[in-house]
Amino acid sequence: MAETDYLLRYEKGNFKSGYCILLKTRTAVINKYYSIEGKVYCLIDIIKSIEFDRTKLSEKNQKLFTELSQTKLIL
After folding, report:
1. Would you list the domain boundaries of the chain?
2. What are the 10-residue block averages of pLDDT along the chain, 75 residues in total?
3. What does the alpha-carbon distance between residue 14 and residue 74 come to, in Å, rounded to a whole number?
4. Which of 23, 40, 46, 51 has a CA between 20 and 30 Å from the CA of residue 68?
């Protein structure tokens, strides 16, 4: 998440949604005990919910962000 100015951490926690976003410190924390699939779903959800300057994204990441924005997660 380097292009978004957010810090991503994987730590132990019992977050109801599997992750927690600390807006003041621009940090996203994902439960490290989640499965890989669960972590991916959390990352997609985090990317959709945070506000950041999309012009800072590389062309490749802008395309990926557009695709993820249009994706509905089915759990």
Report:
1. 2-69
2. 84 85 92 91 87 87 85 67
3. 22
4. 23
